[in-house]
Amino acid sequence: MPFAQLKDRALVSVSGPDAEHFLQNILTTDLDTLAAGEARPGALLTPQGKILFDFLISRAGENTFRLECRSDIADDFMRRLMLYKLRAKVEIAKIDQALVTVAWGDDSTASQLDSTPIADARFLDVAVSRFHGGGADDGDLPGWQALRIAHGIAESGSDYQLGDAFPHDVLLDETGGVGLRKGCYVGQEVVSRMQHRGTARRRVLIVSAERPLPAPGTELTVAGRPVGTLGSTAGTTGLAIARIDRVKAALDAGPPIMADDVLVSLTIPAWAKFTFPQEPVGAEGA
After folding, report:
1. Could you give the CA distance from residue 242 to residue 221 in angstroms, rounded to a whole number?
2. With CB atoms counted within 10 Å of each terminal CB, which end of the chain scores lower, N or C?
3. How far is CA 169 from the centre of its chain?
4. Facing residues of 202 across strands?
């Protein structure tokens, strides 16, 4: 079955009697609804509501959580968590020599890894499992990239820069990464306002073309005007974070959407609930 070992990931453990209360009060994810055996996306935001750190969070026993993040941001992430610790009875530590493997299709990889599968809750229309253990080889990394792109799952570094995106921009509101009914957390006011006013206008879209796409970071334009930025690519498909109001205007009026000199089409991920706006949206969330 297809799998891939993700060597650019790290695991941070948060444990102790106050662990859940501590994390619930600062992260976007609603831990009250986090089931055992699943990994939910989430973020630690700036007070202005932008993503400072992104991660996947799962339960790892009583009063213990594992936060899987990019390995290059793990130390900074831990330091930021420590700033919020104050007198909370929690221990924050990076798990040394941690390996993360992702598999899709079925769960037969578990027997190879001697590890319990954790369902990746970001994927709403295909079964994807994560394992905190390594495989015998790297597996199919291009296949994993193609799967992630095909299902509209954006990740920081590849598709957006930390400090530059709101949770709605990268669909955390639709993949279980934002608790819209939970209490306060860092940046909650901005996220709640964008949700209730419907002012999110940058969204992850799937990019398709007839020939290979240009490099990530290439601007998407309509008549020379930027509408978004290309992220991860796999041949003729890719992801972009784009202004859905400008994309809708282009679709209605007919001018082509270009990535450099490549003609592209932009579509909403099949599982997503948001739609292209029928009327111009407000200025917030630009």
Report:
1. 10
2. C
3. 10
4. 243
Per the CB < 8 A criterion, the answer to whether 194 and 285 are in contact is: yes
Contact 143, 174 (CB under 8 A): no
Per-residue pLDDT of the chain (286 residues; tens, 9 = 90+): 789 999 999 999 999 999 999 999 999 999 999 999 999 999 999 999 999 999 999 999 999 999 999 999 999 999 999 999 999 999 999 998 778 999 998 655 555 555 789 999 999 989 999 998 766 578 899 999 999 999 999 999 999 999 999 999 999 999 999 999 898 999 999 999 999 988 899 999 999 999 999 999 999 999 999 999 999 999 999 999 999 999 999 999 889 999 999 999 999 999 999 999 886 544 344 4
Cα–Cα distance between 125 and 184 in angstroms, integer?
30
How far is C-alpha 81 from the chain's CA centre?
A: 19
Quote the Cα angle for 17-19-21, to 5°. Answer: 100
Rg of the chain over Cα atoms, rounded to whole angstroms, equals: 19
- For residues 50 and 241, what is the distance between their CA atoms, to the nearest angstrom? 15
Exposed / middle / buried, residue 264 (Cβ in 10 Å: 0-12, 13-18, 19+): buried
Q: How far is CA 210 from the centre of its chain?
A: 27
What residues does 240 pair with on adjacent strands?
A: 205, 230
Q: Which residue, among 23, 51, 21, 33, has the nearest Cα to 187 in the 3D structure?
A: 51
CA distance 48 to 186: 9
Helix (H) or strand (E) holding 112: helix 109-113
Instruction: Please identify which residue in the block is written with the tokens 């924050």.
Output: 92
Cα angle value 205/209/211 (rounded, 5°): 145
Separation of alpha carbons 241 and 153, rounded Å: 11
Nearest to 28 by CA among 153, 132, 166: 166
